Amino acid sequence: MTDVQNGSGVLRRIFASDSSTAPATATSRSSSAMTGTAASRPSSPCIPRHWAPLWAAPGSPYASEEEAVQDALNLARGMSYKNALAGLDLGGGKAVIIGDPAHITEGGIKTEALLRAYGRFVQSLGGRYITACDVGTYVADMDVIARECDYVTGRSPEYGGAGDSSVLTAFGVFQAMRACAQHRWGAPTLAGRRVGVSGIGKVGHYLVGHLVEDGAQVVITDVRPDAVERIRAAHPGVEVAADTEALIRANLDVYAPCALGGALNDATVAALTATVVCGAANNQLAHAGVEKDLADRGILYAPDYLVNAGGVIQVADEIGGFVFDRAKAKAAKIYDTTLEIFARAEADGVPPAVAADRLAERRMADVGRLRSILVPADAGAEAGVPADAGAEAGSPVRRG
Ligand SMILES: NC(=O)c1ccc[n+]([C@@H]2O[C@H](COP(=O)([O-])OP(=O)(O)OC[C@H]3O[C@@H](n4cnc5c(N)ncnc54)[C@H](O)[C@@H]3O)[C@@H](O)[C@H]2O)c1
């Protein structure tokens, strides 16, 4: 199957990109993210052998294989920061399959065989990469991949999985928004605030539910009329803006980008009426420097990878046997971390995006250094602790 071979070829190239050769490419978050310390590179996770889950399949094919590799590397790097800040013992990784992720019967490339071939490839990595849903993939896809692979999260509850990660992603964004309200207005509630949500898909629609329940006035927009209708049916009091441009110009207290990346560019920052930005979308800052423009305009920006970590927290919990309440309690800590980031940003005189990068980099460096403490392979054997499966026979184990 050509598609499968192509996809695997890209994956092999990404995994072959060791930290010594992988470019410390800039993400769009902030200039401090470009420092390229060893721990910040995608193949230098703070905890060895585990690569963070997520499978990104593009909505439309990449222009070239090179572009796909670069996107995967950037996204992997972002996952390192997200996992570090969320307190997870995972590094950063991403997988990309080139092609339209629609099912083959709908003009895309997705088939059972393609998903299973992807599963066999991930299995061949022996647990160094754990996959899960992202753009273009769903819980049902994970169940198919899991027929060939032990390293899959985000499966359906029937198969012991955590299910749809959007549930805790939205919950985490809401917690971060409460922290924004606490920081800006002195109370951890959105009651009485006007909140604009752009993109009411998997995450956005759950977020609207939390906001309505909290007493916020919600304004939504989406390019899909059926998504808008679904929200209007569930929450008749919600207002609808014509498009994202109209939404950001509307009279808002909070803007929540929950669609695609790059939502915050020079034009949108200049037009925003909201004084708080807090949303689920990945890579919201269109280019380095936007975080400073936001701060200069007095707009409080809650860093994207900090606030949207609930989903990876949810699926990571599946690794040890999923317990929803445990995962939810971890996602609730996004509230505290957001407040901590704002306090650090003020103390250091930097935008919150820079403060978040610094804290993530510190954890990667500090925990990464622990690997220099060698643990003998037989340590713990008397206590019944199994030796590290990844260790070579007779060699010291570097336990994560
Ligand atoms: N699902 C998760 O658990 C999760 C976790 C972390 C981050 N994210 C990020 O959050 C964002 C949303 O994820 P999702 O899972 O809800 O995706 P989704 O595809 O279910 O929803 C996205 C919605 O945005 C709408 N949209 C697209 N372009 C738009 C535009 N120009 N204006 C307005 N609406 C537009 C789509 O029609 C869709 O309804 C993505 O950036 C994703 O990477 C999601």
Describe the protein.
This protein is α/β, with parallel strands linked by helices and 400 residues long. The chain has two domains: 2-159, Leucine Dehydrogenase, chain A, domain 1 (Rossmann fold); 166-308, NAD(P)-binding Rossmann-like Domain (Rossmann fold). Helix content is 43%, strand content 6%. It is built from 15 helices and eight strands. The strands form two sheets. A six-stranded parallel sheet has the order 5-4-3-6-7-8, with helices on both faces. Strand 7 (276-277), helix 10 and strand 8 form a beta-alpha-beta unit. The two termini are 37 Å apart. Residues 1-60 and 385-400 have low confidence and may be disordered. The structure holds nicotinamide-adenine-dinucleotide (NAD).
Furnish the topology, listing elements before pairings.
Elements: H1 2-16, E1 55-56, H2 65-85, E2 95-96, H3 112-124, H4 139-145, H5 166-185, E3 194-198, H6 202-214, E4 217-221, H7 225-234, E5 239-240, H8 244-249, E6 254-257, H9 266-271, E7 276-277, H10 290-296, E8 300-301, H11 304-307, H12 310-317, H13 324-332, H14 334-348, H15 352-369
Parallel strand pairs: 1-2, 3-4, 3-6, 4-5, 6-7, 7-8
Helix pairs in contact: 1-2, 1-3, 2-15, 3-4, 5-6, 5-12, 5-13, 5-14, 12-13, 14-15
The structure holds nicotinamide-adenine-dinucleotide.
